[in-house]
Amino acid sequence: MAGTTVDARAPRGGPAWHRRVFSALKDLATASPSRFAVLIFSALILLFTALFSLPIAAADGRPTPLADALFTAVSTICVTGLSTVDMSTHWSPFGHVLVYIGVNVGAMGVLTLASILGLVIAKRLGLRAKLLAAGDSNPLRAHGGPVNEGQTVRLGEVGALLSTVALSTLVIEAALAILIYPTMLASGIDPLTALWEAPFYSAMAFTNTGFTPNAEGLIPFEQNYLFMTLLMTGVFLGSIGFPVIFALARQRWHLRRWTLHAKLTVITTTVLFVVGAAAFLILEYDNPKTFGSMDAWDTTFQAFFLSAMTRSGGFAVVDVGSLGGASLVVGCMLMFVGGGSASTAGGIKVTTLAVLALAVWSEAKGRQSVSAFGRRIPSDVQRVALSVVAWGATIVALSTIVITRMTGAPVEDVLFDVISGFATVGLSTGLTAELPDPAVYVMAATMFMGRVGTVTLAAAVAATSRSQLYSLPVERPIVG
């Protein structure tokens, strides 16, 4: 009809409330990408909670209790790997498919996922959305300030980064599944069973989740070193982060052309992998419950495997609850650090540790600025690194205190499982499966905050930033 106008920003037709909701989501995606990201992750968790609660999702055909369904949904979407039920026997084939889909959706990351969905709603990536997606590729993540010269992926490369996220997930998981399949046959797994379990293990490795589809876990494969090596490879590729994969795909082995972020991530990851393995080897070689009953080769290999999995992988051959106290402390330290930024791993991220270590080294040397590989690291990156550590430590401490009070369990066991949840690792001393419902909800909140990211969470709940047009007088308090 003449004179009728149609709002091009909303879908044609449909009730007025539908158009208002669509418009509100578009405005939120444009005005506050961080809050939109948290909203999307929350909506996914609620959706998967409802799906896991369905009778068809459980092997016994009965509805799963709310606490267990919610915890599984959070652990799946946040690619954590902790569980309050036996993941291999409790869920039906439909439930296992939900887990497989959920971890792959969650693996894309809260910021990248929000950018993609924002693209669908707004039809294009606006400047703020580009800043968001680019922010997911550097240590600043959702930092509200201007994009600085140290940004890993420039705005013009955001589209390529998003393509890399989707394609690398598909290609790497498919390649791993193809390689894993014959190794499972070599371990005596039925060919039809392996046809499902191979892609499942592939997804759990690359997403750093650690769920196993079979009741025995990794026990049937503990002597299958090729299978175990493929799992470690998948965990490593998932934990270095999509920006590093993006940089390596462009520059390959031209090390001098690697970005500073890629160099810091690869170097720090390798150092932690070797140091962690050495620590476990020294601390557990005489423990009869873990490495003490193994020969020299098995002990060395399992030490490296445990080091890789405590970074964020979540798979385990030895009983984590049987580790010595000193080894649990080492495991807590490795888990708290986690993997690379914008990766499927959790923790405070290896680049955060690297930046803080470089800042300490520069201060000890009396240097005026922090630099590495001929590049200066801006002070705002250092402040964000400190904020990430402070917020992460606060979340872990509060959750540990609350759960210890609720359960009366040994604090070392609670601390290990809480850090495992916060860093989305998935290893457990056995405590998580025995938590009462109130403690289950606390642990679920810890996993959510750990996956969404402390900086993103802070930016999502903070008020709009205010510009300050003046500076205050300087006064130096005594520190140290």
Overview of this structure, please?
With 480 residues, this protein is mainly alpha-helical. The protein has one domain. 62% of the residues lie in helices and 1% in strands. It contains 19 helices and 2 strands. It has helices at 16-31, 33-53, 66-77, 87-90, 93-107, 110-122, 127-135, 158-186, 191-206, 225-240, 242-251, 260-284, 296-313, 325-337, 350-365, 379-407, 411-422, 437-452, 454-461, and strands at 370-372, 375-377. Strands 1-2 form a two-stranded antiparallel ribbon. Strand 1 and strand 2 (375-377) form a beta hairpin. Helix 1 packs across helix 6 and helix 13 packs across helix 14. The model is unreliable at 1-10 and 136-153 (pLDDT under 50). It is a multi-pass membrane protein. Keywords: Cell membrane, Ion transport, Membrane, Transmembrane, Transmembrane helix, Transport. InterPro entries: Cat_transpt. Its main location: membrane. This is Trk-type K+ transport system membrane component.
List keywords for this structure.
Cat_transpt; mainly alpha; Trk-type K+ transport system membrane component; monoatomic cation transmembrane transporter activity; disordered N terminus; 19 helices; transport; globular; ion transport
Topology pattern, helix = H, strand = E: HHHHHHHHHHHHHHHEEHHHH
Summed up, the helix count is 19
| Separation, N- and C-terminal Cα atoms | 75 Å
Most strands sheet: 2 strands, antiparallel
Average pLDDT over all residues? 82
Poorly predicted ranges: 1-10, 136-153
Q: What percent strand?
A: under 5%
The 3D shape can be described as globular
Domain count: the total is: 1
| Total beta strands | 2
Integer-rounded radius of gyration: 23 Å
